[in-house]
Amino acid sequence: MENKKEQVESHQSVVVMRHGDRIDNFEPLWVTTTDRPWDPPLVEKGRVRAFCTGRKLRTYLGFPIHRVFVSPFIRCVQTASEVVSALCAVDDDPNATISDEVSIDASKIKVSVEYGLCEMLNREAIRNDYAPRDGNFGFNISEIEAALPAGTVDHSVERVYKELPEWEETVAGARSRYEQIIKALADKYPSENLLLVTHGEGVGVAVSAFLKGATVYEVDYCAFAELRRPISNKEQAKTAGDFEVLTNPGQTGIGYLPGSTTNDDKVENVQTEPLSQTWSK
Question: Least C-beta-crowded within 10 Å: which of 52, 205, 242, 257?
């Protein structure tokens, strides 16, 4: 009888991370000075937090990140830029706190923009008077890619979501999208470990969708969830198992209640209110 354990050749890891500190939470008048109030950039503190989190991932994870996928919102793009620079740093100066202070080996990681990782496109996450009236969020992919570290962008990648969801998607619809995009990207690259840079709700879903009974109540800036699943190679085809959540409550900036994991528990107690009602996304 064939030993099923012998079929498992490796594991795939997926890290789902929230962006850093956004400017409108620190400078409330910023929204009056911009044509894009729905797309705030990071403050300097957010860039530093993202870079330092990237350095933490480099030493904490114990495995390499091969690909990074990022929401098109500028706060996520800037976060990804800092994290990738930390992950790819050459002779990393321990005193460096931002990407401008290091040189990188751009061949280590490939980065792509993925619409499916975008913010919830509804008034729970974006104030209705801040959203574009015509529903066009005006993302220019060439400009976004230019903001990522030179040489890291993989232009050959075909996006899973060809365009943004329509305004106004439901909270349930957005949560379903986050779960679907995590699975879709992992299935597309089963031999690679991925980092997905997204928004607070997406990180919450990374826990609640793959840990039965979990209730997520907090996701800090640059918090991340680590998922892992077995990859089997049978008859020259890769088969993936189910994801498990390796991140413990409070360990990496995510607050959640694990809930019950017994077979008798028939209720999947995911968060019932959007996380944006607890903190700004």
Answer: 242
Distance CA 34, CA 39 (A): 9
* pLDDT tens digits along 200-212: 999 999 999 999 9
The phi, psi pair for 180, rounded to 5°, reads -65, -40
Q: Is 5 within the bounds of a domain?
A: no
The answer for 221, left when phi > 0, alpha when psi is -120 to 50, beta otherwise, is beta
Cis peptide before 168 (omega within 30 of 0): yes
The CATH number linked to 99 is: 3.40.50.1240
pLDDT of residue 233: 82
Domain assignment present for residue 276? The answer is no
- Written as one letter, the residue type at 253 is G
CA distances to 190, 198, 278 from 272, rounded to whole Å, are 31, 20, 12
Which H helix or E strand runs over 76?
Answer: helix 74-87
Query: pLDDT for 216-245, tens place per residue?
Result: 999 999 999 999 999 988 766 778 899 999
Instruction: Say which range, 18-27, 99-108, 242-251, 272-281, has the weakest mean pLDDT.
Output: 272-281
Q: Does 104 reside within a domain?
A: yes
Q: Answer positive or negative: Cα dihedral of 228, 233, 238, 241.
A: negative
Q: What are the C-alpha distances in Å from 10 to residues 130, 228, 234, 243?
A: 46, 10, 12, 13
What are the angstrom distances between the C-alpha of 61 and each of 15, 67, 103, 131, 159?
A: 9, 15, 22, 37, 26
Q: How far apart, in Å, are the Cα atoms of 274 and each of 148, 212, 218, 243?
A: 29, 18, 11, 23
pTM of this structure:
0.91
